[in-house]
Design a protein that fits this description.
alpha/beta; six-stranded parallel β-sheet; 37% helix; 379 residues; 2 domains; Rossmann fold
Length: 379
């Protein structure tokens, strides 16, 4: 089968969406021919890249950026051509330019699977309000034309305005969790307690909340370091607002920069806990949570729809009030001081086994194609 997959950003961009799409594409390319249509978010990236004999990437030229959005005038042309050439379309949302993909899939009667990774958010201003209305309208059509919609969790699916009225055609598939064995210990600073943070250094990840928790932690912990793993977010000017806090608490911080996913296990296994203090619905799950859990590391995460699910499923951590630095510090202390309460690694590995992800997608594709051949679908 020929499968087209679309998303705004692909490798070498670092994000949960990119990782998910890459794992899915490589898995599907073992049996199918997979084409990826994405944006050329770096001018040095090739317009056409052959990853392997069954996986090819096409990158549409980027004319301009609007925050994280990419303006790509030639994208509709690529979408028209590639949708016609393939038998199944998988669209990773949010993706405003995905409107063209969904429209052509509808016109050419190609089954369309939309993967709902998260909602989107535009900071307050008249321009952003207008852009937000347009993006929501585009996604309304994308989801309406979808044959099936993949959601990480029912918890988030019932919360999101884009999916809660379309649950009849929603399929719950936990994201791919795949960590190789640890080869050598990570080089980290000596500290009795190591608290990990893995992700873009962006506002939606709750980094300011974590930094403001440091005074509360310092009153109870004599020797601790917060290990920050991840890149500065692309096109996110709000990162500048975090810099004063980073400078103020630099004594307690250790920056690694981006780390290859296959090397993260070495870090997780040295953390006393991982924190995910997200404050926005842009965070729908947090793949880093189960990654840490299957490595034996407990988690402290925000009590947000979707984000709370890994802790609820495994018991390997604590949930905190979103945006509450004092509560975050208290829960980190609880996990650090009572590690035996959160040793559910075996259960986590069963729940988040990569084979479960593969089997669920294989079944979904078979069902979606079968429904398309019958000329029907879930309404």
């Amino acid at each position: 089968m020929k499968i087209l997959m679309t998303l705004s950003y692909y490798r070498p961009n670092i994000s949960g969406i990119t990782y998910y799409a890459d794992q899915l594409a490589r898995t599907l390319s073992q049996k199918h021919r997979v084409t990826i249509l994405t944006g050329q978010h770096q001018k040095t990236l090739p317009r056409r890249e052959v990853v392997n004999r069954r996986l090819v990437v096409y990158r549409a030229a980027v004319w301009k950026r609007l925050n994280k959005g990419l303006i790509m005038p030639t994208y509709p042309i690529w979408a028209w051509r590639l949708v016609r050439q393939n038998q199944l379309v998988i669209l990773h949302a949010p993706q405003p330019e995905g409107f063209w993909v969904a429209l052509f899939a509808w016109l050419f009667r190609r089954p369309l699977i939309v993967v709902h990774h998260c909602d989107f958010f535009f900071p307050s201003s008249w321009l952003n309000a207008s852009l937000g209305f347009l993006v929501r309208l585009l996604h309304h059509f994308i989801y309406a034309w979808a044959t099936a919609i993949v959601i990480y969790t029912l918890d988030y699916g019932q919360f999101s305005p884009l999916t809660r009225k379309r649950l009849l055609k929603a399929e719950v598939i936990l994201p791919p969790i795949k960590l190789p064995p640890e080869h050598q210990p990570a080089q980290l600073p000596t500290a009795r307690v190591k608290i990990g943070f893995v992700g873009r250094l962006g506002w939606e990840k709750g980094l300011p909340v974590l930094l403001k928790a440091i005074p509360h932690l310092a009153r109870r912990l004599n020797d601790f370091k917060i290990i920050l793993i991840g890149p500065q977010p692309v096109g996110d000017t709000s990162f500048q607002k975090v810099k004063p806090l980073l400078a103020k608490y630099r004594h307690y911080l250790y920056f690694t920069g981006p780390i290859a996913r296959q090397d993260l296990a070495a870090y997780y296994r040295q953390f006393n806990c991982l924190v995910l203090p997200s404050t926005s619905s842009l965070e729908s799950f947090g793949i880093v949570q189960p990654e840490a859990m299957v490595s034996g590391c407990p988690v402290v995460a925000s009590n947000l729809p979707g984000v709370r699910v890994p802790v609820q499923m495994t018991g390997m951590g604590e949930l905190v009030v979103p945006g509450d630095s004092a509560d975050l510090a208290a829960k980190v202390l609880q996990v650090v001081q009572h590690p035996s309460r959160y040793r559910q690694t075996k259960l986590a590995r069963q729940i988040f086994a990569f084979q479960n992800f593969i089997a669920a997608w294989q079944q979904l594709i078979a069902n979606t194609v079968a429904v398309a051949k019958l000329g029907g679908g879930k309404k």
